[in-house]
Specification:
Shape: globular
Strand content: 25-35%
CATH topology: Alpha-Beta Plaits
Radius of gyration: 11 Å
Strand order of the largest sheet: 2-3-1-4
CATH architecture: 2-Layer Sandwich
Number of domains: 1
Number of helices: 2
Order of helices and strands: EHEEHE
Amino acid sequence: MVMHVVTYRVKDIGRDANYYRDKAKQLIGSDAYVEVHPGLVRFRFTRELSESELEELDDFIKEVADGVRQH
């Protein structure tokens, strides 16, 4: 199975992986495996995300964790 990985560098994690997973599922409509590390949040989706879905996730992470996507 191919996983679509989206990684963010964050300044303020402040929440656990379940929070990020639930919010991603609400925003994107697709379940994800989420890793939370100091300064990093990584999502692994089971499908490729569209550009608009990535932008929604970007906005969410910027708002709640002061983060930016790594390219």
